[in-house]
Amino acid sequence: MSIKNTVFYRDNSCISVDFSPEEISSDGAIVLLEKLERRHKIIDYFSNQITDKRHPLLIVHSVKKLLKQRVFMLMQGYEDCNDVFHLQHDPLYKDILEGDLASQPTLSRFENSINKLFFLCVIVG
User: What DSSP element (H or E) covers 44?
Assistant: First the structure.
């Protein structure tokens, strides 16, 4: 049996929530994280502080999207980038990140490219 509810999410767009087992997510709190991010724009602020040294023609995911994906994964308890393998088909993650998730190698390269001095400057300054 399927139960459908309608909720209003982004820009008053109507989204139908279906509680059937075909596509299910165990990470419902990510919707609240997205709402907090839209209100306070913390990830947006920090993503503007990170310089992107990648070749512009080879970029698939923006720094903001990579940072958002990684922060949301950490806040949901997914400590390793390997966990993206299990989340790549999660309907909530795909909706909130507006498309496909970045792969484990992409997230690992992103994490390793950020200078530790950047974090020190953000904390101190």
Answer: helix 42-49
- What single-letter amino acid sits at 107? L
Instruction: Measure the CA–CA gap between 27 and 119, rounded to whole angstroms.
Output: 28
Count Cα atoms within 13 angstroms, Cβ side, for 98: 9
- pLDDT at position 39 is 92
In whole angstroms, give the CA distance from residue 107 to residue 61.
10
- Residue pair 17/6 in contact by the 8 Å Cβ criterion: yes
The whole-model pTM stands at 0.77
**pLDDT score of 80:** 87
**63 three-class SS:** helix
Q: Which pLDDT value is given to residue 13?
A: 65
| Residue whose C-alpha is closest to residue 24's, from 91, 99, 114, 120 | 91
SS3 of the chain: helix, strand, coil, percent, to 5: 55, 10, 40
